[in-house]
Amino acid sequence: MNRVYLSIGSNIGNRMDYLTRAIEQLQHHPAIQVKRQSSVYETEPVGLVDQANFLNIVVEIETNLEADALLQVCQLVEELLGRERVIRWGPRTVDVDILLFNEEVIRTESLIIPHERMHERLFVLVPLLELSPGLVHSATQRPLKQYAEEATGEVWIYEGEESS
Ligand SMILES: Nc1ncnc2c1ncn2[C@@H]1O[C@H](COP(=O)(O)OP(=O)(O)OP(=O)(O)O)[C@@H](O)[C@H]1O
Ligand SMILES: Nc1nc2c(c(=O)[nH]1)N=C(CO)CN2
Fold it and tell me: Is the CB of 127 under 6 A from ligand 2?
């Protein structure tokens, strides 16, 4: 059984609803068990800054799927929830990224694990460390806590309500 951490983000429309529906889609997959979810965080956009704030969450799953098959499931969930690939780092209804896959290091044309930019993104590190404070970056062996001390970007726990 593979233990995997996924990052889910949304900054268009009813962001909370998109996160919830993405997690439901994962839960309904016969080869995926969603084990734990972090708090939901409101986060300032990183990369392309002139866009709305995101909601971000990290979920821990167990799956028998290999990493490339799991990537296809993540992309299917994005498509089901209406994501269009328009601008890199731009606004999106929902984005599902694979952060860590066991303690593996994977580099193929379509998949890089650990996710290439995860260690510099507080919107990933804060929810991930909330779930598992002792995690280590599987490529560098450096504790993720140390990366979090150096990373930038504002994140705070989301408690608000919003309508669609
Ligand atoms: N660990 C990973 N998780 C998800 N996608 C990945 C991963 N590694 C490589 N990719 C590739 O990245 C491509 C682009 O992904 P996507 O459109 O979600 O990028 P983005 O969300 O705009 O930016 P970022 O990758 O910085 O989060 C995907 O088609 C996928 O093949
Ligand atoms: N705060 C925040 N910023 C981002 C996010 C995201 O999920 N949250 N996703 C991006 C592309 O993957 C680019 N920038």
Answer: no
